[in-house]
Amino acid sequence: MTDVKHYILTFRCADGPGIVHAITGALLEVDGNILEQAQFTDEDSGVFNMRTKFESPLGIDEVRLALTARVAGFKPEVSLRHEHDRRRALIMVSKQDHCLVDLLYRYEIGELPIEIPLIVSNHPDAEHIAARHGIPFVHLPVTAQTRPAQEAELLRLAREHQVDVVVLARYMQVLSDALCSELAGRIINIHHSFLPGFKGARPYQQAHDRGVKLIGATAHFVTAQLDEGPIIEQAVERVSHAHTAADLAEIGRDVERVVLARAVRLFAEDRIMLTGARTVVFQ
How many other CB atoms are found less than 10 A from the CB of residue 131? Predict the structure, then answer.
């Protein structure tokens, strides 16, 4: 094909016969050529999920019209975009900057297919990092009394910059239920996860004191239930009695960086589909 355009299609609906036939028939109508396709039916909920990357010489409006006509009877949730239209990520950080720096590095070398219009922090510490990368930095301090106003400003910024996802790169504040609801399925957080899990202050010291053998991290969508949102990505590293608490923290930072970057890339490539409290992740 000449002058072809690459598209990403995601599709979600109640499972039933004829879904794939309808979608592929629509793509055939627009001279579409499927480059990558993955599908999964969650048997617990009966929900069909599919992600398709394809090329077509036709414009996005013509492609969307053909798809809509063919699949309307399934009452689906559909997203269709040009592959080159990158997701826009607002990154939030507090004082620990290891995840932020890693995301910016991967972004600059082309590993993360995103745009970063803004970095927001409740502390000024990371402003020089944003400046070094030429990204606007907004300092939004927060207290219990100012949280509603601070979150209202955060939402305003997200709308102004047409943000697709908010990435909490070690942003050490609990978001309100209202904000979690407003941005449901659009906030990704990274959390240190241990077996067992340790909450509160100095988690790596707690892990060392208990003699853990595995440490790790979990990237998940943020919900009103603290650190219990749908899981996107996880990884672990084996440790031993010889590691100090400082060693565990160092290893933990490495795991957090990798896991968060993977989760952001999966979101950026439309590979994550929410199914209740779980995710379907097309690798």
Answer: 12
